[in-house]
Amino acid sequence: MHRESIICCRRDREIRKKIITPGDYTIVPYEDSRCKIRLTDVYCKNADGVCEMEPLSRIFNSPFDGNVIIGDMDAFVDRDVELILQQMCCGELCIAHLTYKNTHGDLMLDITCKIELLDVTEEQLISDWSWARLYESAMHHKERGVQMIKDKRTVDGFRRFSKAYKMLVAMEPVDKDTLDEERAKELIDIRVKLYNNMAHCQLQFEEFGASLELCCRALKYDPENTKALYRRCMAYIGLHMYEEAWEDIQKALAIDPNDKASQLKASELRPHIEKINKDYAKVIKKMFG
């Protein structure tokens, strides 16, 4: 049996594996590789002893058919199994050990199991993917991200949107001579939607600066995008930049006067703007009164 190797080591988690049976080192999984695995001897515990598995895991819960597409998992334990698989060779059998702790160093989850990588469908590196394949992957991750948001899994949704955006970036530079106008508009529309979706995720965790930057990027491509204006308004409010927030919400209402969310946000902002105007009037009066 080989020595145990560390796949990842952080304060909140540690991922290790020990090879029992080596595999074919010439066949290893890459992004989007289709893997067939077998899990055995699964044991899960926490500080109190034996416990239930992470409920959102697909790999460690039934029904699991043994098929894993690298880069297509959402639950944190499944993504960590992906990391292990990318350090395995086809035919390899190993003992995997995944340990998770909270910020105080208390054990939250400890998983050990045997993983056998039965088969790997060899794939190209992303740098060698075709334009069409990158586009298909971007749309897949975007749609999965939308589903994660519907399931109230904001962090997982943001991760999916980020992966979709990376696929769009990998498609550049796009040859404008061979790209028809309709497809060019479609790519811009997807980019704007991804910026908006990532901004929404950042707002959920009060990351107002990051949300502001994403909304500005969206508005650069589509200055009249009401979602981007509304979310940038929210970011400005979080940063206590009420005048800028007021300007954005007024622009949104000028584009769609009947939007209920924008109307409500304008009503919430009005007292702040009235106070700012009164304070400004007092200053002017003192200076020139």
UniProtKB/TrEMBL annotation:
| InterPro entries with a match to the protein in the record | FKBP4/5/8-like, TPR-like_helical_dom_sf, TPR_rpt
Domain of life per record: Eukaryota
Start-end of each TPR repeat: 226-259
The UniProt keyword set, sorted, is: TPR repeat
What name does the UniProt record give this protein?
Uncharacterized protein LOC113393821
